[in-house]
Amino acid sequence: MAEPPCSGQGSNGSPVAFGAVVSSEAILKAENAAVEMYRFAALMLGNEAEALSLVENSVATVEVDPCADPCAAKGLVRERVLDGALEIMHRQDPASFADLPAADSGSCLEGDDDMAISGTEITELVSGAGRGPLRDWLNRLSQAQRAVFVQRAVLGSSNADTARAINRFAKPSIWTAEAVSSLFRQALCTLASSLVRSAPATQV
Questions:
Q1: What are phi and psi of 158, to 5 degrees?
Q2: Does some domain include residue 203?
Q3: Rounded CA separation 111/126 (Å)
Q4: What is the mean pLDDT of residues 11-23?
Q5: In principle, which of 8, 38, 147, 173 could form an S-S bond with 66, CB 3.0–4.6 Å?
């Protein structure tokens, strides 16, 4: 007698689409990833409606196998949304990604380990009351600057991973880990300066 298929598989053993009603850890992780990636996409694109559409379309194409590693579902959603956001940004401003940033000889940071603004402060800006100033600042960046900053600061991608992601769409594919690092350090400096200027003056 044949064993019943794993929960979430069809009668032929193939994975079911994400939208199917299946109760499993894999589906839950994919749903949680979709929520997280919506916030990421909104910061990347600067448009919440466009971000929601991107996440919905990306998730609809993801097939989840509940018998596989549950984290695989989260990774699939993250990959699809990231690529979708970068494709849109490259289409909107291809010239922004065509040239590498100038060397940051005047950067306020000495190296990759230095931070003009802490990781905790960035988290608060993304999820707390600082979202307004952060989004205003992001809207003043080029698409390439925005893509680098949001991937590094929000998604937690490394310099090398960020460069590889950008190069999947950049023509020519010239981005390097060093270029991403340089642009990210510059962005951290300008963000810190922007926050200082926007902070209310302290009453004496």
A1: -75, 170
A2: no
A3: 24
A4: 46
A5: 8
The beta-carbon contacts of 55-58 under 8 Å, at least 24 apart in sequence, are: 55/81, 57/84, 58/84
Per-chain mean pLDDT for the chain: 78
Q: Where are the beta strands (DSSP E) in 39-140?
A: 63-64
Last residue of a domain, one of 92, 109, 131: 92
Q: Same domain, yes or no, for 120 and 85?
A: no
- Higher pLDDT: 155 or 23? It is 155
Instruction: For the chain, list the strands marked E by DSSP.
Output: 16-17, 63-64
Which tokens go with 24? 């499993």
102 and 194 in a single domain? The answer is: yes
**pLDDT at site 21:** 40
Of 23-27, 45-49, 98-102, 142-146, the range with the lowest mean pLDDT is 23-27
Distances (CA, A) of 181 to 67, 79, 187: 39, 21, 10
In this structure, what is the dihedral angle of CA atoms 52, 58, 61, 67, given to the nearest 10 degrees? -100
Domain that holds residue 38: 22-92
